[in-house]
From TrEMBL:
Domain (AMP-dependent synthetase/ligase): residue spans on this chain: 101-488
Keyword ATP-binding carried by entry: yes
Cross-referenced Gene3D superfamilies: 3.30.300.30, N-terminal domain of ligase-like
Residue stretches making up the Acetyl-coenzyme A synthetase N-terminal domain: 30-90
InterPro entries in the cross-refs: Ac_CoA_lig, ACAS_N, AMP-bd_C, AMP-bd_C_sf, AMP-binding_CS, AMP-dep_synth/lig_dom, ANL_N_sf
SUPFAM superfamilies: Acetyl-CoA synthetase-like
Family per record: Belongs to the ATP-dependent AMP-binding enzyme family.
GO biological process: acetyl-CoA biosynthetic process from acetate; lipid metabolic process
Gene name of the record: acss2l
Name of the protein in question: Acetyl-coenzyme A synthetase
PANTHER family in UniProt: ACETYL-COENZYME A SYNTHETASE
Catalytic activity, EC: 6.2.1.1
Any one GO molecular function term: propionate-CoA ligase activity
Length: 635
């Protein structure tokens, strides 16, 4: 069904020099491999697994599953019976079997251009082992959860891999989150240790992480006793300290042995939990397991970035998000890649920082978010002209739909028209790319994530759950699992089934809308639920509403999304105040009487779209006029 035919859309074809030594050099090769992955998944994934180390081989098939709630519980299993270790596969295997010990795993580049270091695979291995021994000494055992609240410093990678080595389940909380969010995630995961840093500079702004971490622990009072802080001493002078439970990173690491036998885990043992926004407001602990996640992140990394041993790869995401987990840590390391690990932000100390770093490390593959591209576009081409970007071969985007204007600018101004742009669609839940071009194989249409990755079978459903063939628009769902899909919502399997499998039995429901064009290309049209995407970060309207109504002055709040030039979407909040004369009282009352607020109408008011259609279900349609007259322009 996926034929690339003549089209009115402008197509961008892969450059010849890229095709020459590419893993998947043309569209027919992609199609052949794709067919194999669906027709014989057992053989397809077995071949991928052969690259890795298995302490014990699998006794079950490569993939087993049930996707139909009407039949029974939802489950996915990959390589049942096999024993392995993620950390061994991404470090020891390369150092011991591939002789990659001296190869650079990460070029760490600090927030300030004066701070940088290179970390080889063997150095990484010994730091990870040390950290693993520290955690063990603190009593952390296989299956225990470790919360990590660290900025983009090497210690973050050491800690996550140390967890993987001893079979502890890491739960990384993005170091920009508040103490409330951190507290909620620590409590839900029931973590026994929290690893944090004293502080971090993001641009000019100092964030006192240890202080926020202390606040989070105070709020979760039941936890305080078992918490110990391992801190990385950076440049914050006054760090709050409790010698009863806090320990310094440097002190415990110094005396810790450099050898640590990996814990041999079952293929389906948990690897990590990562929280993602849920439409009810409470974040969901997305759980990924060892073997499937290893196979899927390593294979997507290899093919989507057409990885070669001499590449220097840079993903600008933060490891606190899934993009960092899969495409800064696990995927690149599993391939023995050299990556840039960047602590800073795109505009510090100047707006050419990204381009400066690309020149400095001769980056060949560059992966960032549309929001960053749109931000940098604002400064024009001049900041780019100071730097040599000729090392670049492939560009990637992730996190939200990319508008064709930003795509074009990325392709022309950054890639000089030489580099394919891989627009990768995926989710925390999918573990890795699910709709994506392959850079040497797929003709590109700006704004389309193009076609499914190997093993992924997408389809589009209408409201009644009927499959739509050919050109169509509706709900994006997947008919079967691939190895990297999430296994459950941590400690809440029912929520997992309800969120992703209830609406359309037999399918995994992404929550995204999607259009398939006449050439078979997939175009993500945005969320179909009450979720919105601000600067590539997913949040739920309910979550924001809950936060607003916590304020003592607020009676009610409704939040909708509105397009934003740089952030993609922004929040547009409708708030009614208690005992306030400023909002006309009638207006507030009318809104209350609506019961379920008509979000569609609020959204249109936010966007100043006057043609509202049928308003007959509203208690008082005049409210709408009043809201229009009080509209204010967002910054
Ligand atoms: C990887 C990541 C997932 C949601 C997803 C969708 C949006 C991600 C996209 C995209 C259009 C792309 N999204 N990539 N939309 N084109 N290439 O971002 O995970 O934080 O869980 O967000 O992001 O709406 O459902 P996550």
């Amino acid at each position: 069904t996926m034929v690339v035919t003549e089209s009115q859309d402008k197509m961008y074809y892969p450059p010849d020099d890229l095709k020459r030594d590419a893993h998947v050099p043309d569209f027919n090769s992609y199609l052949a491999l794709y067919r194999k992955s669906l027709e014989n998944p057992e053989a397809f994934w077995k071949e991928v697994a052969d690259d890795f180390f298995w302490k014990k081989p699998a006794t079950g098939p490569m993939l087993q599953y049930n996707f139909d709630v009407t039949i029974g519980n939802i489950y996915v299993k990959c390589m049942e019976g096999a024993k392995t270790n993620m950390c061994y596969n991404v470090l020891d295997r390369l150092v011991r079997e591939r002789n990659l010990g001296e190869k650079v795993a990460y070029y760490w580049e600090g927030n300030s251009p004066d701070h940088h270091m290179a970390i080889t695979y063997s150095q990484l291995l010994s730091q990870v082992c040390r950290c693993a021994n520290v955690l063990k000494k603190m009593g952390v055992k296989k299956g225990d959860r470790v919360s990590i609240y660290l900025p983009m410093i090497p210690e973050l990678v050491y800690t996550m891999l140390a967890c993987a080595r001893i079979g502890a389940v890491h739960s990384i909380v993005f170091a920009g989150f508040s103490s409330e969010s951190l507290c909620e995630r620590i409590m839900d995961a029931q973590s026994s240790v929290l690893v944090t840093a004293d502080g971090v500079y993001r641009g000019e702004k100092l964030i006192n992480l240890k202080q926020i971490a202390d606040e989070a622990l105070e709020k979760s009072n039941i936890m305080t006793d078992f918490m110990s802080g391992i801190c990385s001493l950076f440049w914050c002078v006054q760090t709050p300290w409790d010698s009863e439970c806090d320990v310094w990173w440097e002190e415990v690491m110094r005396d810790s042995p450099e050898e640590c036998e990996p814990e041999w885990l079952d293929a389906e043992d948990p690897l990590f939990i990562l929280y993602t926004s849920g439409s009810t407001g409470k974040p969901k602990g997305v759980l990924h397991t060892v073997a499937g996640y290893l196979l899927y992140t390593s294979l997507t990394f290899k093919y989507v970035f057409d990885h070669h041993h001499d590449d220097v790869y840079w993903c600008t995401a933060d490891i606190g998000w899934i993009t960092g987990h899969s495409y800064i840590t696990y995927g690149p390391l599993a391939n023995g890649a050299t990556s840039v690990l960047f602590e800073g932000i795109p505009v510090h100390p100047h707006v050419g920082r990204f381009w400066e770093i690309i020149e400095k490390y001769k980056v060949t593959k560059f992966y960032t978010a549309p929001t960053a591209i749109r931000l940098l576009m604002k400064y024009g081409r001049e900041p780019l002209q100071k730097y040599d970007l000729s090392s670049l071969r492939i560009l990637g985007t992730v996190g939200e739909p990319i508008n064709p204007e930003a795509w074009q600018w990325y392709h022309e101004a950054v890639g000089k028209g030489r580099c394919p742009v891989v627009d990768t669609f995926w989710q925390t839940e999918t573990g890795g790319h699910v709709l994506t071009p392959l850079p040497a194989a797929t003709p590109l249409k700006p704004g389309s994530a193009t076609f499914p990755f190997f093993g992924v079978e997408p389809t589009i459903l209408n409201e009644h759950g009927e499959e739509l063939e050919g050109e169509a628009e509706g709900y994006l769902v997947f008919r079967r699992p691939w190895p990297g899909i999430m296994r459950t919502v941590y400690r809440n399997h029912e929520r997992f089934e309800n969120s992703y499998f209830k609406k359309f039995p037999g399918f995994y429901v992404t929550g995204d809308g999607c259009r398939r064009d006449k050439d078979g290309y997939y175009w993500i049209t945005g969320r179909t639920d009450d979720m919105l995407n601000v600067s590539g970060h997913l949040m739920s309207t309910a979550e924001v509403e809950a936060a607003l109504t916590e304020h003592p002055a607020v009676a009610e709040a409704a939040v909708v999304s509105r397009p934003h030039k740089v952030k993609g979407e922004c929040l547009y909040c409708f708030v009614s105040l208690k005992d306030s004369r400023e909002f006309t009282h009638t207006l507030v009352e009318e809104l209350k009487r609506l019961g379920k607020i008509m979000r569609r109408i609020l959204r249109q008011i936010a966007r100043n779209e006057k043609d509202l259609g049928d308003l007959s279900t509203l208690a008082d349609p005049k409210v709408v006029e009043e809201l229009f007259s009080q509209r204010c322009e967002a910054a």
